[in-house]
UniProtKB/TrEMBL annotation:
This is glutaryl-CoA dehydrogenase (ETF). It catalyses: glutaryl-CoA + oxidized [electron-transfer flavoprotein] + 2 H(+) = (2E)-butenoyl-CoA + reduced [electron-transfer flavoprotein] + CO2. Residues 244-389 form the Acyl-CoA dehydrogenase/oxidase C-terminal domain. It holds the Pfam family Acyl-CoA_dh_1. It is an enzyme of class 1 (oxidoreductase). InterPro entries: Acyl-CoA_DH_CS, Acyl-CoA_Oxase/DH_mid-dom, Acyl-CoA_Oxase/DH_mid-dom_sf, AcylCo_DH-like_C, AcylCo_DH/oxidase_C, AcylCoA_DH/ox_N, AcylCoA_DH/ox_N_sf, AcylCoA_DH/oxidase_NM_dom_sf. Its cofactor is FAD. Its EC number is 1.3.8.6. Belongs to the acyl-CoA dehydrogenase family.
Length: 401
């Protein structure tokens, strides 16, 4: 992208005027990290299916890991600051915003929200620095949209829990030090409920295998996980989580980050299209002088700005403690859907060159197909909103936040 294009996209609507100095500082730090540490290597990493693990400690040193959490070595930043960091990281690649989401919004948030003080003290400071990596195991091979039907089980055996089952599409699992695994747990009194377990990944019976053949999120890691007779001490359970409200509270943290992050990918595509429109000449003029091209650019810009303003509104609601799951669904559905549309339009402006790695558009487009699916598909969020509008659930209410 050109510097001029980035400046124009950022300033036409003057978003900075709506941010605090601290929020702008977080955004600038994340933009510098994305520009200096991710962008120079991301095309090669995507092509070679390489996750650049050495950046994890740098993300921790920058304060990005679990940055919205208070204490335990976390930055305690506001929701809007966290969203802006997600936007900037995803403007480089969805895989790196996904890393920050899995680490901070899923694994760390699960321990922070539902863990014992001992669990928090043991894991969160090391996860905040990137010394320890976490993953979050909810989705199973048969699908992710109906977690109430999970088949992974946990049973009490004396002073131990024994876990058996399988999870799929679990980000970071093969490099993680700790996994938060959700299972249908049967206690010694015969009662059953969905519970979360803190599982050190070196525990016997825990196996994580990276999924190969991906055409999306290639610079990121997603895994199949098997649990075969995994024995854990009785205090491995997250004491504050019982039922699906536990994992859903973490999923909503990750969905909120996506609302912002997808707009980062959209901005990157818009910047690429704008830069090309100003420099590529056809019939003796830059293509940006043509009405059809300007119309596309204007429509892309409008949807980008609407998406960022929606994200900002949701961030302010979150900071007030009034953000609802339905409102998050509005944001996740809109941001990813519009980011994909912007990517498609950008590719058309770039013409044939748009399918090459000379521009980031096809990479963003491919990644956004994954973002569209995880943390709730378009259809699931449509049904959440349909329930909100009609008062009638068109799905099993136990399975959707």
């Amino acid at each position: 992208m050109s510097t001029d294009s980035a400046l124009i996209v950022d300033t036409v609507f003057d978003l900075d005027a709506l941010l605090t100095e601290e929020e702008r500082g977080w955004q600038q730090k994340a933009r510098a990290f994305a520009t200096e540490r991710i962008l120079p290597v991301i095309e090669d990493d995507f092509e070679n299916k390489h996750f650049r693990r050495e950046l994890v400690a740098e993300l921790g040193a920058a304060g990005f890991l679990g940055m919205h959490l208070q204490g335990y070595g976390c930055a305690g930043a506001g929701a809007v600051a966290y969203g802006l960091v997600c936007l900037e990281l995803e403007s480089a690649d969805s895989g790196w915003r996904t890393f920050v989401s899995v680490q901070g919004s899923l694994a760390m948030s699960a321990i922070y929200k539902h863990g014992s003080e001992e669990q928090k003290q043991h894991w969160l400071p090391r996860m905040a620095t990137g010394e320890a990596i976490g993953c979050f195991g909810l989705t199973e091979p048969s699908g992710g949209s109906d977690p109430a039907a999970m088949t992974t089980t946990a049973r009490r055996d004396g002073e131990e829990w024994v876990l058996d089952g399988a999870k799929r599409w679990i980000g970071l699992a093969s490099i993680a030090d700790v996994a938060v695994i959700w299972a249908k747990a049967t206690d010694s009194d015969g009662s059953t409920a969905v519970r979360g377990f803190v599982v050190p990944t070196d525990t016997d019976g825990f196996t994580a295998t990276p999924i190969d053949g991906k055409l999306s999120m290639r610079a990121s890691i997603q895994c199949d996980v098997t649990l075969e007779g995994v024995r854990l001490p009785v205090d491995a359970v997250l004491p504050g989580a019982r039922g699906l409200s536990g994992p859903f509270s973490c999923l909503n943290e990750a969905r909120y980050g996506i609302v912002w992050g997808a707009m980062g990918a959209a901005r990157s595509c818009l910047e690429a299209a704008l830069g090309r429109a100003r420099t590529r000449e056809v019939f003796g003029e830059p293509i940006g002088a043509r009405q059809l091209v300007q119309g596309k650019l204007a429509d892309m810009f409008v949807e980008y700005e609407k998406g960022v303003l929606l994200a900002l509104h949701l961030g302010r609601l979150k900071e007030r403690g009034t953000l609802t799951p339905a409102q998050i669904s509005v944001g996740k559905l809109n941001s990813v859907r519009e980011a994909l549309h912007i990517a498609h339009e950008a590719r058309s402006i770039l013409a044939g060159d748009g399918i090459t790695s000379a521009f980031p558009v096809m990479r963003h487009m491919a990644n956004l197909e994954s973002v569209r699916t995880y943390e709730g598909t378009d259809e699931i969020h449509q049904l959440v909103l349909g329930r909100e509008l009609t008062g009638i659930a068109a799905f099993s209410s136990a399975s959707v936040a």
